[in-house]
TrEMBL record, chains A, B:
Mg(2+) 3 binds at D32, D77, D212. HAMAP family: TMP_kinase (MF_02128). The gene is thiL. This is Thiamine-monophosphate kinase. Pathway: Cofactor biosynthesis; thiamine diphosphate biosynthesis; thiamine diphosphate from thiamine phosphate: step 1/1. ATP binds at G124, D125, R150, S214. Reaction mechanism of ThiL seems to utilize a direct, inline transfer of the gamma-phosphate of ATP to TMP rather than a phosphorylated enzyme intermediate. InterPro entries: PurM-like_C_sf, PurM-like_N, PurM-like_N_sf, ThiL-like.
Amino acid sequence: MSVARVGEFGLIARVTARLGVGPTCLLGPGDDAAVVSAPDRRVVACTDVLVEGRHFRRDWSSATDIGHRAAAANLADIAAMGAIPTALLVALCLPPDVDVRWAEELADGLAAEAALVGASVVGGDMSASTTLTVAVTALGDLGGRAPVVRDGAQAGDVVAIAGRLGYAAAGYTVLSRGFRTPKLLVEAYRRPQVPYGAGPQAAVHGATAMIDVSDGLLADLGHVATASRVGIDLCADAFDVPQQMRDAANALGVDPYSWVLGGGEDHALAATFPEDHGIPDGWRMVGHVVHGGGLTVDGKPYKGSAGWDHFR
Amino acid sequence: MSVARVGEFGLIARVTARLGVGPTCLLGPGDDAAVVSAPDRRVVACTDVLVEGRHFRRDWSSATDIGHRAAAANLADIAAMGAIPTALLVALCLPPDVDVRWAEELADGLAAEAALVGASVVGGDMSASTTLTVAVTALGDLGGRAPVVRDGAQAGDVVAIAGRLGYAAAGYTVLSRGFRTPKLLVEAYRRPQVPYGAGPQAAVHGATAMIDVSDGLLADLGHVATASRVGIDLCADAFDVPQQMRDAANALGVDPYSWVLGGGEDHALAATFPEDHGIPDGWRMVGHVVHGGGLTVDGKPYKGSAGWDHFR
């Protein structure tokens, strides 16, 4: 049955019936606004929008996958501040011929990804549109800590990574060439595996700067370098390129480092730590913060795809 | 210059440069997420999306007008909980040929409307899209009060209104018939005048239920009646139909009460109060809560347009 047939209020009722309510949700969907707990008298908030044909394709990803990914993109931004996500709000624009089941499964994906961190979908809005669009807002709690921002990196700090790099970009390339395997890469594109806990962990460990890798590691660390007025030098050998990624890169005629260093959407976290602190468990050291500016790999400018610009 | 020409990061830089930072914004745009104060350990949050061709037309409203309206739709939802807005986040989807100035002026409108209540635009996201879409999330603070929800109306309560009814719907009809006057109505459609302060005022005064009139008074009070398991009877004479609206209605062959009772988007607030409390200054009594269910006008079912469904 199409969403046009059940109408706005019918669709909202069907979707909200599927959403669980998390412990931080004091008043859930159904009123003018939701009420969410903000235990430390501050709330962390971010918004990320996914547009069909630009951020996802319905023939490449299921509705549930797209829900997982839309939630993950936002939850990762909250984690990158050192915070714990508490809630999602979702503005959903649907072509009227979309099946109701698609919208329900999207909600399932959003709710399931949020539940991984104890958060829930607390509100939203729906409209018809010719372009399928999912705009998500995430809220989070800092637990009394200072937010970890982009401009705190200092020369001498080490640069470390939590999570995967290049998997989602490789999966995207695989799909865009018409293949459906290797599954490891395609599934990584469909549902990123975000190291949410590593964000608060890094904050507790004294991270000086942190960012979610959404545009590509070089582009995102470039934002840290610019904001902190420092340079960052990465060590190519520090990056793990798994065999399946090497094989896919060979088969497709791609430099796998363009995925690892230039690909976003795995939502890894990148952070800088004072050298004498060491790095937390589960993080991998990949470079150093240096005086100067810009990004280098093994001391030299990297000549490859540096990330995405969504208007180009 | 088109948004495609300046690119995503250029556009973000130009737009954020125009945004002021309000007193509740602890960390503004430019990082993975913003940080907003939430003094009473709870945050009120809602999302509303405006889609070109469905919620606005660029030939009917300026970018600044659309910014005001997108902000107002969300800020009114926060007020309708009895809360004071603290922050907006904006997900903006733009066709690549849109002029940069249009996006800048939209941001000006969003920021100016938020500033009316001491809030500011603290974050957002941008993407290219074939459909111009503005998804706004608003946050707010309850100041220690309980949220005023939809399900608290009791038989015997009085129903009261703050703000205008039917002006925006009349302006919409005027524009859709190809006219540009009367200005009073057209301007009301372009920039609603929302009684933001009346929301917290009603909460302090002991309102038992409250809602923002966005779909039309009958539709929105219908939500209150359903949620509270009561009926609501409105008194037609209690509604002020200004002369310019009567004249426009005559000229266009429209029943002005279809605008007043069925038109949304002025973002008036409707609330119920225990009869012995009276109603706060600036509110107008328009009816009573009764046993039973559904909406009546002067004791009879109203036969007219009852509001909008955005998928039909």
